[in-house]
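Hi,

I'm pasting everything inline rather than attaching a file, because the server keeps stripping attachments. The sequence lines come first, and each chain or strand is labelled.
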Amino acid sequence: MHATVDGETLTRSSEDYLKAIYRLSPEGRPASTSDIAHLLELSPPSVSGMVKRLSELGLLEHVPYKGVQLTGAGRRVALRMVRRHRLIEAYLVQFLGYSWDTVHVEAERLEHAVSDTLVERMSAALGHPSVDPHGDPIPDADGSIRELASRALADISVGQTVEIRRVDDSDPERLRYLAALGLMPGVVVTLRDRQPFGGPVTVETAGVPHVIGAELAQVVLCAPEEAR
Amino acid sequence: MHATVDGETLTRSSEDYLKAIYRLSPEGRPASTSDIAHLLELSPPSVSGMVKRLSELGLLEHVPYKGVQLTGAGRRVALRMVRRHRLIEAYLVQFLGYSWDTVHVEAERLEHAVSDTLVERMSAALGHPSVDPHGDPIPDADGSIRELASRALADISVGQTVEIRRVDDSDPERLRYLAALGLMPGVVVTLRDRQPFGGPVTVETAGVPHVIGAELAQVVLCAPEEAR
DNA sequence: CCCAAGTATTAGGCAGACCTAATACTGGAA
DNA sequence: TTCCAGTATTAGGTCTGCCTAATACTTGGG
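And the predicted assembly:
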């Protein structure tokens, strides 16, 4: 079922808005109407309208012409959706042969349809994982989430050996490319070279060197091998 | 994704209507507005309205004041939904610990959200089953469905031994009761006694006799052990 | 053969969720 | 400080999908 507020069922759309606003306000800073519109591929007036409805439901606070912030209740719903999304992704990859570049689209629809029971059973079948296939942390059922500290591959010193922890999942094409190179969470890489002025970096994994552009190196997040 | 007609996506509601009409017209006999309304728990005018839209899409034929029949396209959509529903049920029971009385509700929402790809992967994971946990046949991906011949437990002769093939899944309470008695598809039972005038029947399974009412015996369908 | 009961449809409304066009605000540059 | 560019909101419209109330069929019994 959908999330509820005072026993009222939220629509798929509402859930998507709350998730989008959560994504756009990492530190609780207000999100702008047009950013939301852009992310959800809707017109700004549509967003204004929905924002009004959602703030009447107490899910967010809206200061006209200023921006939108989630309330506690709104953030709970958003985190619930994030949890669902990431667990579904993990489940589909683990048990149904999905690749990490195709799983996002499927999860995007399923997250609105699964029950809490199903989500928890998938979590149990996976052994209650803490991250999804892209390394994104999965919030607890109670809504707590732990972002793990990491640095972009682009910022690692030459010679250092690190473990890939997380990869931006917004572009399937990019994910496919990274998978082909074997650059995915859990893989240990050593930085062999970095060209100046935003030039390419050379990383070595399993003895094989790969040269990747600076832009790509920016979305591959790493941490020292030991920390977990 | 949802079923499409000429590239147009059908809504969840449309899919539910088509499935309901399929259920209500076993031999292609027209279904009445009020039967549809009753099954979907909607008002008759709502049904009239939707019927109009769906017949404009070429999914069904409507003779006002007479009834509604699926077209070929409409039946294809309906069978696709039935396939999804039953495969989802089978998957959830097999892999995620669902019981056959709780699985229906979950499948009812998921059937609108899963992609064809996911359905086929679930089918493959199950070894392409031909029936769901209640013994209902699963249509092929191409839309062909084979109803297996069976007789109600209420109509078996005393002394005969048969295999349970299928159980009506519309009442979770009843399913739970039958499961408690061990009366489920695949189980072999021998009819020991039947009281006249719609009285109870006594069946024996694994050496244990159970007395069940005539109404219940009517929805438990059986076939000779060998046929499959 | 006509009428009442039952069933179906039309009329008219409402909420959600979207759109485009028009208007209102805000903040920075001249 | 005024104006303009950009951003946000309001106005007004559409479509889906539901509702209730009113009207129109159909049909079996008298």
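Helices of chain A lie at 12-24, 33-40, 44-56, 72-95, 103-110, 116-125, 172-181, 214-219.

If the labels don't parse on your end, tell me and I'll reformat.
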